[in-house]
Amino acid sequence: MGILVGAIMAFFDQLSVGLLISLLIFLIFLDERYKEIPITLNFLIIILVTISIPNISLNDYVAPLIVMAFLLLIYFGFLLIKKKEGMGLGDIILIFSISLFIGFPNILYLITIASSLLLLKIIFTQKYKEQHAFGSWLAGVFLTFILFQEFYVFEGSVTI
């Protein structure tokens, strides 16, 4: 009986990761095209991330909530000073769900890599004044982390 339950749980884990990968690919194209991440897509990603983490507890939400609170502080501070958005709220919610999946130290690596790649794109295309989709780069780097997780293991971190 235990083997059957384990097999069913492994199947649903693989199914949720497969759905997560599909949603991330959809998000990449959607965000690059329209520069917007629908809230329903973000909530689906949060649900799939929560399902795919075994034995999730309330303590697992502390670091992602701190990251999200910090980004919201930056978001509203920028909005107050510049009177326009610097980063969308969809990006902040996406960062919350990604940090829930990969953990606190790794989210900093992911944000750094995604920002660097987006900065390279801006430099090569020379479109400095236009808005750019950051969520698609976050999702792309996250997708790369998921697909090639056995090739990278950060020192002292738990594997995904």
UniProtKB/TrEMBL annotation:
GO cellular component: membrane
Recorded coiled-coil stretches: none
Ranges where the Prepilin type IV endopeptidase peptidase domain occurs: 19-119
Any one Gene Ontology molecular-function term assigned to this protein's record: aspartic-type endopeptidase activity
Organism (species): SAR86 cluster bacterium
Entries under Pfam families matching the protein: Peptidase_A24
The enzyme's E.C. designation: 3.4.23.43
InterPro entries: Prepilin_IV_endopep_pep
Top-level EC class: hydrolase
Record flagged with keyword Membrane: yes
Keywords, alphabetical: Hydrolase, Membrane, Transmembrane, Transmembrane helix
Keyword hit for Isomerase: no
Residue ranges of the TM segments: 6-30, 37-56, 62-81, 93-114, 134-154
Protein name (database record): Prepilin peptidase
